[in-house]
Amino acid sequence: MADLAVVLDTVKTERAQAEVDQRRTTAAYADLFAGESFDEAAASKVSGERVHSAGRLQTAVQAALAKIHALLTGEQRKRLTYLLRTGALRL
Predict the structure, then answer these.
(1) Handedness of CA 46, 16, 5, 80 (dihedral sign)
(2) What DSSP designation does 63 have?
(3) What's the CA gap between 60 and 14, in Å, rounded?
(4) What is the pLDDT of residues 4-39, one digit of tens each?
């Protein structure tokens, strides 16, 4: 149980960081409209930051899935599968 809590906490932290990154890049996009001309280079940089953030989250989720799979028994994996398919649990 403790190992599972650590894995889930790691994903929770990474998701929270992704939300912060989303808000920051949204503000940066808004700043692009404040100028007299559109800065393509700045827009590209902001877009790259979003992609990088999404990639970090994807990597964290994938690692968590592998760790959770290793921690659970076959019966527990079946129950988790059911919860995921019914929407009772989301990743």
Answers:
(1) negative
(2) H
(3) 7
(4) 999 999 999 999 999 999 999 999 999 999 989 999
0.70 exceeded by pTM: yes
In this structure, how many other beta carbons lie within 10 angstroms of the beta carbon of residue 34?
6
| CA–CA gap between residue 25 and residue 48 (Å, rounded) | 10
Residue 49, amino acid: E
Q: Are 64 and 11 in contact (CB under 8 A)?
A: yes
Distances from the Cα of 16 to the Cαs of 39, 56, 86, in angstroms? Answer: 29, 12, 25
Q: How does pLDDT run across 39-66, given as a tens digit for each residue? A: 999 999 999 999 999 999 999 999 999 9
> 16, 33 in Cβ contact below 8 A?
no
Exposed e or buried b per residue across 38-52, where buried means at least 16 C-beta atoms within 10 angstroms of its C-beta: eeeeeeeebeeebee
CB 47 within 8 A of CB 26: no
